[in-house]
Specification:
The chain contains 13 helices and ten strands. It is α/β, with parallel strands linked by helices and 337 residues long. The strands form two sheets. It has an eight-stranded parallel beta barrel with strand order 3-4-5-6-7-8-9-10, surrounded by five helices. A two-stranded antiparallel ribbon has the order 1-2. The structure holds NADPH dihydro-nicotinamide-adenine-dinucleotide phosphate (NDP). NADPH dihydro-nicotinamide-adenine-dinucleotide phosphate is lined by residues 19-21, 23, 49, 122, 152-153, 177, 205-211, 214, 216, 227-228, 266, 283-287, 291, 294-295.
């Protein structure tokens, strides 16, 4: 495993990081979830990402159990706050001081740890003054409940405002967690340059486009049994955007490109995001330990420039690049308000 600094900080994280959205506490049984976490640890992954909202808090509990017994200083645990868990009452969501301060304690309890390495704003809260949110984060860092602060799916402008406040308040806002893959490149024009300027690293989610870039979904055919596209608990809905025949046809055409580098398609997809030097980690999911074994082999892979160009030619216009989509990820109004 190779390690990268998380933004302009002294924190090193495994460049392949394991996340448990849609899987732990939902799509996969707890014993398989634990096997996946242990496969990750065995492969040298030290960094684990979850959120209070995943499987409505169950994912944090499963991860906490699976990491039990690990030396705390040898792993990095990341979680997030914003979305409601349980009842969506007016104060059960967003980034108000009340919701943030209450949520961190629930997360620490479920993760069975005294602190998280990174606490992330899962979305931007358009209703809470940013000063209030950042003061709450400053207090959480001061209390030793989180070591660093990050954001997820914030625009360049929101990141800039957050960083300015974090500097005034004396804590480190060091990361951005956006979706990024060969098929989804909306951060390249604004979020990445701004993050580079301000010292944030990207922890990129769905680098395999939720499984689509593994090439296992074939155009015009039913998805393989047990895959995310068949998961009625949420996965099938989330992956829908990529399950179009034009996308799946182009993805199939990447097969020879991967073979040329002696990589599987999933490995090529993970290695591709790691070619961007503002990316601190590729945040991969897995429903089976074998997938972890396969995907970690993307660590340290260099893709030659001519192959990067070839990938662009193969994918053509199915790549999404519209930077304005980042702003649409944060709800204009809080749920439950
Ligand atoms: P990926 O793109 O890595 O997709 C993972 C899924 O793809 C697996 O669960 C598996 O699904 C399939 N897969 C993985 N490897 C292979 C393989 N080698 N061959 C075939 N299929 C494979 O990322 P995720 O979408 O899971 O997201 C990763 C993490 O990112 C999350 O766990 C979470 O931590 C974070 N995230 C953050 C968000 C945010 O808003 N901040 C939003 C979403 C995710 P299956 O076997 O079921 O088909």
């Amino acid at each position: 495993m190779d390690f990268r600094y998380l933004g302009n900080s002294g924190l090193k994280i495994s460049e392949i990081t394991y996340g448990n959205w849609l899987t732990h506490g939902s799509q996969v049984e707890n014993d398989v979830a634990t096997q996946c976490v242990h496969a990750a640890l065995d492969a040298g992954i030290t960094t684990f990402d979850t959120a209070d909202v995943y499987a409505n808090t169950k994912a944090e509990t499963v991860l906490g159990e699976a990491l039990k017994g690990q030396r705390r200083a040898s792993v990095e645990i990341f979680t997030k706050v914003y979305w409601p868990t349980g009842p969506a009452g007016p104060n059960d969501t967003g980034l108000s001081r009340k919701h943030v301060m209450e949520s961190i304690d629930g997360s620490l309890q479920r993760l069975q740890t005294d602190y998280v390495d990174l606490y992330q704003a899962h979305r931007f809260d358009t209703e809470t003054p940013l000063e209030e949110t950042m003061q709450a984060f400053a207090d959480i860092v001061r209390a030793g409940k989180a070591l660093y602060i990050g954001v997820s799916e914030w625009t360049a402008e929101q990141i800039r405002a957050g960083v300015a406040l974090s500097k005034q308040l004396g804590f480190q806002l060091i990361s951005s967690q956006p979706q990024y893959s060969m098929l989804w490149r909306v951060i390249e024009d604004e979020v990445v340059p701004t993050s580079k300027e301000l010292g944030l690293g990207q922890i990129v989610w769905s680098p395999i486009a939720q499984g689509v870039l593994s090439g296992k979904y074939l155009p015009g055919q039913a998805p393989p049994p047990g895959s995310r596209a068949t998961d009625e608990k949420g996965g099938a809905d989330m992956i829908k955007r990529f399950m179009a025949d034009d996308v799946l046809t182009r993805v199939q055409a990447l097969k020879p490109v991967a073979e040329q580098l002696d990589l599987t398609m999933a490995q090529l997809a993970v290695a591709w995001v790691l070619q961007n030097d503002n990316v601190s980690a590729a945040l991969v999911g897995a429903s089976r330990p074998e997938q972890v074994h396969e995907n970690v082999k993307a660590a340290g892979v260099r893709i030659p420039a001519e192959v990067m160009t070839r990938i662009d030619e193969v994918l053509g216009d199915v790549v999404e690049r519209d930077g304005a989509l980042t702003a649409k990820n944060s709800p204009p109004k809080r749920i439950g308000s």
